[in-house]
Design a protein that fits this description.
Blueprint: H1 2-10, H2 13-20, H3 24-38, E1 43-45, E2 50-52, H4 54-82, E3 86-92, H5 94-111, E4 115-121, E5 135-139, E6 148-155, E7 157-161, H6 163-169, E8 183-186, E9 197-201, E10 204-208, E11 214-216, H7 219-227, E12 232-236, H8 237-245, E13 250-252, E14 261-267, H9 274-285
Helix pairs in contact: 1-2, 1-4, 2-3
GO molecular function: DNA-binding transcription factor activity; sequence-specific DNA binding
Domain HTH lysR-type: 1-53
Family: Belongs to the LysR transcriptional regulatory family.
């Protein structure tokens, strides 16, 4: 079909061959096969030129439009490869995503003005593919081995209290001392249960279920309570960092700090559209320097 269209355009098999990079005889054979396959004459051959028949003119016009559409599609594909465009759907943990990833996306978006972003901040587990997310960031151990997971960062559980609280109630020396203290406990958004506190005791990790007067399902509310001297709190360092840096909270029980929890960037497979690939590369380039 390509040989036929160029033959009509050029008026000769030799010129058509030069345009599409094959010999004149190959062009002639291609056109003959097309005519034979439909049992019609599309081009009248003379010693000087090629003249399309009436039917050949109709076929040429339709094929020319089809080939133009195909060329446009190919150009769009090449353009999308060189210039990322379209929407990226991302699922992020609420606090970590809002505090660290969204600000990174501001710089990335400035570099790629053709991209748009649909971001969900949610700590509840969800199926990446079923919910049509392009990318997700997951904190903790992985449950779906079908996804590609690339380590992006770490989250460190940290135990803190305000200087005012410690002055009033004393400094706990070991995790066992916490039963004598006011502890502010997080209620899990996913399980609805009170979160156990984790400590490394010797070579083992120990998880403690603490009774508390204050059980709250929002981590930042716990931070604000701890800032005001309501009690001791154990949360990821990325939630406590600003209060620690401002000396509103003091890190305690450092020697019992548990192992860091990995944070992963997840996506369905390696065959990602260019818009997702450039974001994946950008986030991975920031690995270890996000929080």
């Amino acid at each position: 079909m390509l040989s036929f269209v160029h033959s009509v355009k050029c008026g000769s098999f030799s010129e058509a061959g030069r345009n599409i990079g094959i010999t004149a005889s190959a062009v002639s054979k291609n056109v003959s096969r097309l005519e034979e396959s439909y049992g019609v004459r599309l081009i009248r051959r003379t010693t000087r030129t090629l003249v399309p028949t009436d039917l050949g003119v109709q076929v040429f016009q339709k094929l020319e439009a089809i080939l133009a559409d195909l060329e446009s599609v190919e150009n769009d594909i090449q353009d999308s490869i060189s210039t990322p465009r379209g929407n990226i759907s991302i699922k992020l943990p609420r606090v970590y995503g809002g505090r660290y990833i969204v600000p990174l996306l501001h710089n990335f978006a400035q570099q790629h003005p053709e991209l748009t972003f649909d971001i969900m901040l949610d700590d509840r587990p969800s199926n990446l593919i079923e919910n049509k997310f392009d990318l997700a960031i997951h904190i903790g151990e992985l449950t779906d081995s079908n996804l590609i997971a690339r380590k992006l960062d770490e989250e460190q559980l940290t135990t803190c209290a305000s200087p005012e609280y410690l002055e009033a109630y004393g400094l706990p020396s070991t995790p066992d001392d916490l039963v004598e203290h006011q502890c502010l406990v997080l209620r899990s958004q996913t399980s609805g249960m009170s979160e156990k506190w984790s400590f490394k005791v010797g070579h083992k990790e120990q998880r403690i279920n603490l009774k508390s007067r204050f059980i709250i399902n929002d981590g930042m509310a716990l931070v604000r309570g701890a800032d005001k001297g309501m009690g001791i709190v154990q949360l990821p360092r990325n939630m406590l960092g600003r209060s620690v840096d401002a000396d509103r909270l003091k890190v305690i029980l450092k020697q019992y700090q548990p192992a860091a929890t990995p944070i992963y960037l997840l996506y369905a497979d390696s065959n990602q559209p260019n818009r997702s690939k450039v974001l994946i590369d950008y986030l991975i380039s920031k690995r270890g320097r996000i929080s």
